[in-house]
Write the structure tokens for this entry.
Amino acid sequence: MTGEAAVATPVDPAAEPPRCDILVQLAGCRTADEIREGTRRVVDGLRGLGDDLTIGIACGSDCGALSVDAGGAAIVPVDAAPPERFPIVGAVPTDAYRALFDAGRRSGARAMALIGTEVDQLTPGVARALLQPIIADDFDVVVPVYDRQVYDGLLNAAIVYPLTRALYGRRIPGQLGVDFGFSARVAERLSQGGQNPRLRRPVWILPQAIADDMRICQAVLGVRLPAPPDSIDLATVFAQVLGSLFVDMEQRAPFWQRVQRSQAVPTFGTAAPGRAPAEPVDVRPMIESFVNAFRNLQRVWTILLPPATLVALKRLTLVEPERFRLPDDLWARIVYDFALGHRLRVINRDHLLGALVPLYLAWVASYALEVQGATPAAADVRIERLCAAFEAEKPYLVRRWRWPDRFNP
Amino acid sequence: MWNEVQQALHDSTTQVLTGLARLLPGLLALLVAVLLSVLIASIVGTLVRRALLGVRFDEKLAAWGTLDLPAWSQTRSPTLLVSRFVSWTIIVIGALIGIAAFDTTLTSSLVLHVFGSLPNILTALLLLVIGHFLARFLSRGVLINAVNMNLPWAGLLSMGVRWLVLVLTTAMALDHVGIGGNIVSLAFGILFGGIVLALALAVGLGSKDMVARSLEKEMKRAPEEPHEQPFRHI
């Protein structure tokens, strides 16, 4: 890496990007000041990875007009909207990942990173953690490990991680993160010129990477996953995250039906010890929401869930709030049944995902009651048990997926 | 005198018998037409049913996403509905052909009127079918969203939407075939307004206490520091 500082000059976004070994997209930096500061920290972080490495900073189509002290890095304009906090299916033209892969391929980069962590949390270590495994150890995808608190990333903990782990056989909890590292091989495979233009975001890139036998690892970033917007609506998140995950699952059915057990992936760095235990929270509103849903959504759930599951849910509506527990195997079967219903289109898909929201809230209530007073490490153990249940119930999914018309108790 | 009565009776009997004899071929033709049409209808109906079962019509319809297949019983599946519709259409056409065999002005005009109204009747039927699916789709969407908003009257709201759509499409269908005239518009207005009023009253009266409690709590509550929601879903 050249050690001299340079001031970037305006760059034409349509022009071919300059050649570089590493391309970093600062998706979490929006203003000129944030980009300047973010660039400085990234360059600091990558110092020492190699003396002859050149770095490109991709920071949106306007970044070429900024006078940024890039510390020796080239400024690459990438015409892409910043990544959303959750995947949006069909948003291909503004897909930040696709734009990064394109720019990376055109600039001949060996390694790429998309950094969504905002500048107030961004440390030099984040960029280094994401890129070192690719440069030094020849990995293809680096997935973030965040400082997780007990109630962080609940949708991921409840559905996305256990489901993808059971399906694809890799223990990678950071799929809904915003910071990732990619090798040139991934860019070649998934950029506009790649062979599979349907793939979009890391949630769904990972299954593809697993299927392609790419080398995947995790890197401890030492930062907390950025908070989602306050105005976020659960039904919308479900439609976008789970809707696309279920579609992806449908497309990869021949692959995941052959996967039997999960295995850990290498992890770089050591996570900080757990913070203060989780304080008890009032889960009664969520339980009331579930009971209200049970009263009103019977005829929708009856279409999706087998009778035994409905009986178990009815029992749950009758227990005292403090003894409210949604068993792991029951939850795994519920998720699998909804995935199957999504595949078979037994009802409108948005309706289906909307009908899952109260059940998810029931899971959150049950989880919160179980982990109150627990440290993040203890909560991780609890999630590990849930993942094991998803893996144990996978034969149920495979059976129903193959023969959906058979009797279902 | 008696001869004249006898003559009159003879004439009238002859006239009636002649009339009956003249009608007999027409009646026979009607009977044959109906029997034939029933036979053809059963054959065509069976063929249609088998063809639809062969192409998995019910599952394909369900795949459109607006049909709850399990909600349809075995005796009311879309396949049976279509095959029965085809059969009954053939029977009705056969009956009309039979009636036309009388060759009277009345039957001809009846046939002309029925055939003239057929496009309107079919359009009205289409409206009813669309209304049925739309009502089912919208009511379920409203129900799920209302439940996710934790509204206690979600079921009532969903039922209201369902009936609003059904009443609207039924009124449109009746208006299209010209049945009822102004009475349909009037009845529709009363029913539609009635449902909206009933919903408003139900929701309003149902939430009266809740709103009062909420306002009371709001007024009594001391200002507090906003606290961060501990749950992060993504």
The domain at 117-208 of chain B is CATH 1.10.287 (Helix Hairpins). The mean pLDDT of chain B is 80.
